[in-house]
């Protein structure tokens, strides 16, 4: 009893100090909410698991087909970007499948808490390891986008000795940041009994759709982590824009230089297609990202929106692959040819079928 009393006193003392530093986190106290007693299916872990697994199952053949197009249908004119594009495709697919199959997170924004429902949980992988895997793979995916743009720029400034030397430590720095960005939080995962007790004190209830025994609290105070992540993501996209801008300027100068007008146009066409390939999925997931930011900063909880947010984010690679196939001319033309052949074969079979049946009759 003494140990429990001491533990309860620590939680109470910490919550008093915490409420003075972050009073908005205690917005839920002494209030009642509909989600406390709701059993709406959209709120539940069963919905999250069912939908993510189903969507992941549909996405797998699309991802495989996209990989086939990159490996076997990339023309010689795009050969220089083939493997960097394939690297991005693999990481995007892994991110999708990581969310839909491997981890299947059931997250309780505005808290960075929840529990996994995926394959890794069944294999006994710890929650903190799954979290670290997904955050790191997401950071690597951002670097993969940088690699594609840097690869295009390198073709134009290959004779620049400074950049050829500087790009190696530049890449090393990016991979180090991506690998160790979350590492301090990973090492300082809060004591789960303590963290759960604090959130029970803050939250108005434990909703019916939450299995309290499975809840994993990654971070108690989320704002510092979210701000740091926001700065790094913004910095990454600023680098991407800078590389795209410099590449376009270099292409303009190459028209009267070493490249023919046709070659410059091919470079520009690819760059425009790749930018569209990035922009459309980003536009799809921008609203979920904005929602998570607002939810964490004003401490708004809606589990249905939380589930939908994870579902939309997990579809990033799927839509990126669809856009890639539609935008890049070689993949689009091959796909149209494939559909034409399939339709022709189907029509031939349907026309032969009645003829055979008449002969038998």
From TrEMBL:
InterPro entries: 7TM_GPCR_serpentine_rcpt_Srh (IPR019422), Nematode_rcpt-like_serp_H (IPR053220). This is Serpentine Receptor, class H. It comes from the Eukaryota. Keywords: Membrane, Transmembrane, Transmembrane helix. The keyword tRNA processing does not apply. The chain crosses the membrane at residues 50-71, 83-109, 129-149, 170-189, 224-246, 274-300, 306-327. It comes from Caenorhabditis remanei (Caenorhabditis vulgaris). The lineage of its organism: Eukaryota, Metazoa, Ecdysozoa, Nematoda, Chromadorea.
């Amino acid at each position: 009893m003494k140990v429990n009393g001491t533990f309860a006193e620590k939680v109470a003392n910490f919550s008093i100090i915490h409420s003075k530093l972050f009073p908005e986190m205690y917005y839920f106290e002494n209030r009642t909410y509909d989600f406390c007693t709701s059993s709406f299916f959209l709120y539940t872990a069963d919905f999250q698991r069912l939908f993510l697994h189903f969507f992941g199952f549909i996405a797998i053949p699309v991802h495989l087909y996209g990989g086939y197009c990159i490996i076997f249908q990339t023309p010689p004119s795009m050969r220089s970007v083939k493997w960097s594009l394939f690297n991005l495709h693999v990481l995007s697919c892994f991110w999708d499948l990581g969310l839909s199959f491997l981890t299947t997170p059931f997250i309780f924004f505005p808290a960075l808490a929840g529990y996994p429902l995926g394959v890794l949980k069944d294999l006994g992988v710890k929650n903190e390891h799954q979290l670290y895997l997904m955050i790191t793979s997401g950071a690597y995916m951002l670097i993969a986008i940088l690699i594609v743009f840097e690869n295009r720029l390198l073709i134009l400034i290959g004779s620049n000795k400074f950049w050829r030397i500087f790009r190696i430590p530049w890449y090393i720095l990016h991979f180090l940041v991506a690998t160790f960005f979350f590492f301090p939080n990973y090492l300082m995962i809060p004591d789960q009994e303590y963290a759960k007790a604090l959130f029970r004190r803050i939250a108005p209830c434990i909703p019916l759709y939450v299995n309290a025994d499975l809840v994993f609290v990654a971070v108690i105070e989320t704002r510092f982590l979210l701000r740091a992540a926001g700065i790094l993501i913004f910095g990454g996209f600023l680098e991407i824009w800078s590389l795209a801008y410099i590449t376009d300027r270099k292409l303009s100068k190459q028209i009267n230089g070493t490249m023919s007008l046709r070659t410059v146009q091919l470079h520009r066409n690819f760059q425009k297609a790749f930018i569209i390939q990035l922009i459309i999925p980003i536009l799809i997931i921008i609203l979920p990202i904005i929602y998570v930011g607002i939810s964490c900063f004003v401490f708004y909880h809606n589990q249905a929106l939380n589930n939908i947010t994870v579902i939309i984010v997990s579809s990033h690679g799927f839509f990126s692959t669809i856009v890639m196939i539609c935008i890049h001319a070689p993949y689009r033309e091959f796909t149209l040819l494939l559909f034409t052949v399939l339709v022709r074969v189907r029509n031939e079979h349907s026309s032969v079928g009645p003829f055979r049946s008449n002969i038998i009759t």
